[in-house]
Each structure stands twice: as structure tokens, then as C-alpha cells.
Amino acid sequence: MEKYLLLAMFAQVMLTFTVMVVMGRRRFSAARNKTISMQDFATMQLDKAGDDVHIAGRNFINQFEIPVLFFVASVTGLQLNAAGYVFVALAWGFVISRVIHSIIHLGSNSVKPRYYSFLLGCLLVLTMWVLLVMQVFAL
After folding, report:
1. d(C-alpha 53, C-alpha 30), whole Å
2. Is the CB of residue 22 less than 8 Å from the CB of residue 56?
């Protein structure tokens, strides 16, 4: 099961790098179109770059918020040998929810489905943590 958990972690890492590429392309496109100047990057004052640039930046930042709890839970699960079928399924569910969240955020940016995919991911990570605590304390 450990290798499948590692694959879920790798998938989340790949999502983060994919979002970084999207963000970079949008930023440099805005610079190429003279919406922002290269000097704007010095202070990261990219507000005038447009919503698509701002949204990509926010999504990239999102990849370092709740996913941190996912990575810590996953590594803890590996270290404690607590990565069973349910734990790994929760991990993959989290990654899938993050992919869906990013597709919505970087695409249509429809708030309601984006919120639900975010909430689902949060609940899945919370459940991973509850399982870990239950196993450690044999609850």
C-alpha cells in the first residue's frame, strides 16, 4: 500500500508543478502583452495583470496550504505503518479533489463547485488525520 500512497503524494507534487507552469505562462504572457512590466515582478505587484494571472497565482499558493496537512499525514502514515486501503483511498480522493479544484479555479472559476471540491479535500485530509490518531491510540 505504501507505494500507492507515495504515488498519490507524487501526483499532488505534479499538480503543484503543473499549476506553477500555468501561472508562469500567464504571467509572462501578461508581460509580453505589456499588461505588466518586468519590473512589476520585482515587487510582485501584479494586480494590473488581470484576473487570470491573479487566479493562477492564488491557485499556486493554494497548493501550499491544505496540501501541507496531506503531506504530513501521508508521511506520518508511512512512518507509523498505518497506510492501509482506507487511508490510501482517502489520499487519492484528496488528490483528485485538488485536481478538480484546480481545473475549476483555473478554468471557469465557478465558485460553488470550486468550494465543494475544496471542502471535500479538507474533509478527506481531516479523515486521514482522524484515522492516524485512532490507530496510534488504538481507539
Report:
1. 8
2. yes
Instruction: Work out the average pLDDT over 14-24.
Output: 96
- Distance, in Å, from the CA atom of 104 to the CA atom of 117, rounded to the nearest integer, reads 9
**Residue 129 is which amino acid?**
W
User: Which residue ranges form the domains of the chain, and what is each CATH number?
Assistant: 2-136 (1.20.120.550)
Query: Radius of gyration (Cα) for the chain, nearest Å?
Result: 18
CA separation (Å) from 100 to 5, 17, 97, 121, 129?
Answer: 19, 15, 5, 10, 22
User: First and final CA of the chain: distance in angstroms?
Assistant: 22
Q: Residues 15, 98: contact at Cβ < 8 Å?
A: yes
Tell the burial category of 76 from Cβ atoms under 10 Å away from its Cβ (0-12, 13-18, 19+).
middle
pLDDT value of residue 46: 64
- Average pLDDT on 106-128 reads 97
Residues 110-126 have a mean pLDDT of 97
Q: What is the mean pLDDT of residues 20-46?
A: 76
